[in-house]
Amino acid sequence: MDSPRELHIYYRDGHSRLEVIDSNKRTVLYVVHRASSKPHLTIFRAPTPSSGGFIIGQVSFHHFSSAIELDVPQAPLSMQKTSKMSSNYEIHGKDLSWRWERDRALTSNIRLVDNLGGGVLARFENASFSVKKQGTLTLLRTPTWEMLDAIIITGLAKIEYQRRSNSSRSGAVNASNLAVMNQ
Q: Which residues of 62-81 are buried (b: 16+ CB within 10 A; e: fewer)?
C-alpha cells in the first residue's frame, strides 16, 4: 500500500501566484499564476536542473455560471458540476473518471474520488487561519506525472472556484447589509 504524500500550497507575491511544494517543504513542484481575466489560472510544472518549466494547463471560470473550462494540451480533460444543487464536479479524460466532492459537511475540505476504480485518490484540507498557506493536498496513492498534473489542475480549479464563489457571496451579503443600513 502507498504511503500518503502531502503537498503544500502557498500563496506568493500578494496572492497573485501559488506554489505547490513537495512534502519536504523545499521542492517546488508547480507554480500557478492567478489572473482576474481569462485564463484565471495558468499552471506550470516547475523547472528542474535537468529541464525547464512548462505549462501543463490553464483554467477559466465563467461569470454567472458554474462552468469551469480546462485547457490541458497533453491530456484533454473536462470538468463539470454533477447537478445544479451540488458542489461536486465530475472530471473525465482518457482512462479516467473522477469526482471532486466535499470531504464532510460544513467544511471547505474536498476529496478526489475515482469513479472507475473506487476509493479516494486525494484530499485537500483548507488552511483556514493562514494568510500564506492555502492548504495541504494529500495524495493517497502514488500517481504518474500525468496523473499528478490532472490532480493538480482539477484540484486547483475546484479550490479556486470555491474561493471565488465564497468571495462573491460575501460581497453580495455585504452590499445588501450596506443597502439596509443606508435606508
A: eeeeeebbbebeebebebeb
